[in-house]
């Protein structure tokens, strides 16, 4: 028993040592030469209480303000940056951390694309992370739900990992993954997020918007609102697909735990703005091809099907939208987070190829 | 009327132009050469609900986990870094943003000390910012209180700025300042914060802890808990001053809105650990010398007096603690945030001088 434990400890230490050597080897690729970096708040609104502020009654709200619903942005510009920066918008329950170091300590898209000479803007959307001041009240509870997310995010069907999954199978990485989630400090509101992200594009003038999951919906709306969005890259969008009035497809039934998936109608004049820019959508692996009762695989089947209907609608109106199901281009095993999976350099290469094709990496 | 408005607009544009030129000129000082950067969660606890997780009943909490109360850390290591990194812990209502770009767009301590070849670790403490997963429930309300904070933080007595204040007087900077606050997602708990920051020092091996305001208390506790803390630098600590049993000074009465200020007793053996490392405490300007009814100036008078009693107790036991009231060394006009004030390069120089004196910049 005791010997078993010692052997287990030695094995764990050896694994950690090998892991740290790998990380070290990766990190030593090249130093980053950063021309400028910083952070700021952008967008948001203000409420002012009635009355006049009295400095001798300073704990009373009269005449005081509350600023909220802004985004927080951290940016870095490498020396000799390409013209268009990449602007990263996270998904549900995530923050800008989603694009930083991966759960097992490898480089995320932040560093990978800095090394490829893109300026990066990492957003904490309004009511999330360091942009926590919300114009609406919220109650936050420590709800035990991580095995649900493990499954929903297609690492596997908990406690089983998908056999080919590109997610590290050690407990340290899984713990980091669970701890990178962070709650809403106010209800999710696509209009609020769109307003803040659009303000960011006003500030930076032009860029490529990269969204993940729930960020997809506000992503399309930002591109409609602001022609400074020069392209959209969406990883595994699910909700918020917008169609012109009269062209809404039937809801897609799904065994997924969020039920059937519906599109949303918008005026044709708004929809047509999405036909003016290149758009690419990526989905990972272990998504059902046909309806199934395996709920996570079926949830994402409905997302992928809706994305294809949506891209077809965009292209019918003269647009330029592509859906890439990564296994179909030979990239296997990706979870809901392709940009941080074990093969994220390969996933990044696929994006670099697309950016080059569209002339977006000048 | 219309001419007035045009002139006002021209003046505002000119001011903005001059501001942006200044920022630009500052930013162009030198590119940062970053050997490594990344982020991770550290510390924290786990709760597991009773029962067994069933993937076909995945929205039920049975057998599911919740990870919370970790810190989030973003770090950068410059090429040829000094031996000891600077580890930055923010104050109440703040996040790591507090050390980044200032409200008016200048370099914060993050960039200033990277350029001076220190590795930097920027913490979002447990239950704040991107470390939002809290083990305790919280309700967050959009409370209008910003004119209180303007006054409490000694920018002035709202709406008046202190005549010599080192805070920009334009509305854009003030808006950024208000928006950099972010709420607790669970009650402030010094023990929880100390545990997470101590775990960070275990991970990085050794470093210099730099705290602000409310971070001061967890700062002393971390240094007691973990001898990998090689020095503590505290900007304007207020609460959490620890004294050995039997040496607690009388509470200091104050017209400040938090009332009288009390120390806290700890065992002598713990207290003595604070005598083993160099400690420096800085306070800014517009703090009363004698008791006064101007509540913000009197609040910080009680803090400064308590800090002096505390440093005397440390030194009586053979320690090495210094309190520097910045106006007494000729640095005038600082608010509660000296490290981001208009003269923050001068404030940084003062810190660099101390680090050099103590041999901490090798």
TrEMBL record, chains A, B:
Keyword Signal annotated: yes
Signal in keyword set: yes
Pfam families according to UniProt: Abhydrolase_6
Residue intervals of the AB hydrolase-1 domain: 86-254
GO MF: hydrolase activity
InterPro entries: AB_hydrolase_1 (IPR000073), AB_hydrolase_fold (IPR029058), Carboxylesterase_BioH (IPR050228)
Cleaved signal peptide residues: 1-25
CDD domains attached to this UniProt entry: Esterase_713_like-3
Alphabetized UniProt keyword annotations: Hydrolase, Signal
Protein name: Alpha/beta fold hydrolase
């Amino acid at each position: 028993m005791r010997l078993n434990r010692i052997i287990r400890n030695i094995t764990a230490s050896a694994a950690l040592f090998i892991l740290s050597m790998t990380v070290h080897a990766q990190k030593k690729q090249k130093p980053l030469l950063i021309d400028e970096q910083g952070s700021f708040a952008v967008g948001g609104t203000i409420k002012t209480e009635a009355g006049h502020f009295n400095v001798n009654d300073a704990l009373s709200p009269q005449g005081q303000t509350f600023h909220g619903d802004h985004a927080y942005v951290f940016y870095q510009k490498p020396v000799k940056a390409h013209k268009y920066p990449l602007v990263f918008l996270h998904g549900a329950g995530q923050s800008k951390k989603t694009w930083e170091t991966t759960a097992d300590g490898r480089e995320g898209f932040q560093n990978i694309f800095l090394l490829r000479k893109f300026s990066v803007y990492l957003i904490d959307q309004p009511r999330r992370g360091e942009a926590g001041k919300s114009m609406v009240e919220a109650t936050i509870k420590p709800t035990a739900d991580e095995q649900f997310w493990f499954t929903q995010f297609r690492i596997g069907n908990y406690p089983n990992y998908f056999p080919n999954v590109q997610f590290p199978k050690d407990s340290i990485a899984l713990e980091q993954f669970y701890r990178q989630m962070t709650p809403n400090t106010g209800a999710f509101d696509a209009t609020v997020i769109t307003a803040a992200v659009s303000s960011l594009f006003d500030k930076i003038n032009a860029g490529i918007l990269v969204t993940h999951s729930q960020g997809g919906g506000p992503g399309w709306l930002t591109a409609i609102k602001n022609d400074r969005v020069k392209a959209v890259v969406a990883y595994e969008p699910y909700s918020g697909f917008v169609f012109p009035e009269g062209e809404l497809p039937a809801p897609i039934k799904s065994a997924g735990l969020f039920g059937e998936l519906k599109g949303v109608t918008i005026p044709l004049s708004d929809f047509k703005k999405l036909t003016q820019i290149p758009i690419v959508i990526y989905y990972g692996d272990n998504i059902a091809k046909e309806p199934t009762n395996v709920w996570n695989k079926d949830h994402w089947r409905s997302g992928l099907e809706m994305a294809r209907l949506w891209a077809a609608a965009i292209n019918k109106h003269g647009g330029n939208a592509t859906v890439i199901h990564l296994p179909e281009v030979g990239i296997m095993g990706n979870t809901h987070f392709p940009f941080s999976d074990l093969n994220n350099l390969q996933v990044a290469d696929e994006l670099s190829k697309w950016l080059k094709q569209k002339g977006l990496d000048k």
